[in-house]
Amino acid sequence: MKLTLLGTGCPSVDHKRYGPSNLVTSKKAKILIDCGSGVTQRLNKLKISSANIDALLFTHLHSDHAVDFYQLIISSWHSYRIKPWKIYGPKGTKKFVKKIMDSWSDERKLRISYEARSSVKAFDIEVTEFKSLGKIKIKDINIRYFEVDHKPVKYAYGFYFTNNNKKLTISGDTRPCENLMKFAQKSDVLLHEVFIEGEIKKTNKMRTKKTLHNVQSYHTTSSEVGKVAFITQSKKLVLTHFVPTRFNKTKLKKIVKKDFGKDPIIGEDLLTIKI
Ligand SMILES: [Zn+2]
Ligand SMILES: [Zn+2]
What we know:
This protein has helices at 39-45, 63-66, 69-78, 93-103, 105-115, 178-183, 209-217, 222-231, 249-260, and strands at 2-7, 21-25, 30-33, 55-57, 85-89, 125-129, 133-138, 141-147, 157-163, 166-170, 189-195, 236-243, 265-266, 272-274. The chain is of the alpha/beta class. It has one domain (2-274): 4-Layer Sandwich (Metallo-beta-lactamase, Chain A). Helix 8 packs parallel to helix 9. The termini are close together. One zinc ion is lined by residues 60, 62, 150, 173.
């Protein structure tokens, strides 16, 4: 199995860190997790066609994780997708997909008839909404999904993927929570979000004290993420979803290593990790 970080950023714009998105691949399967801003450009850079993605999984429906959804669908149509899209996500995903597709329906109809491409399968979208806990199998990859704690977001999920006796866990957006500690146990790779509290500049008008407090409190801070990785006995910890996107990497590694006992890997866009 391979994990490729497509976007390691957050809602703030940074041309070096695109919106949150990850790709999990095996010999047979290609699974996309989230579709943040720039996801199709990153796939293109990897020479992977969106026509060949087997499934898209949403961790949650915050816009930074879902904003390029329509771009993904359209690019897959342009790339001659000849199979329906399989989409999995939290409660609300059916409504979200329908609304996005509806908002472009006039433009799409016109395009479909004018461009006369040979397949419209890309617009055939099957959505499955998650229960609180469950399993999915995509070709040779087994997936377990579980709820994480990103409240006030009501439905947010983490995943673990297994293939060839290897385990990859993706935290999604979450504060430290019991479910993640439980389901991420003994991961070969734990991909975890991080909020780097020491790097946030307190500019007066852009962010209030309340903004900082609230944003920090539904994420996992740099002084917590190493503890999470240690408790889960994960072999490797890869950090992503950096808030803020620019920070001192040496300092972050040092803070996390104190708790984890090992250096974490600082995620970068297009970094690929073999699992
Ligand atoms: Zn996010
Ligand atoms: Zn979020």
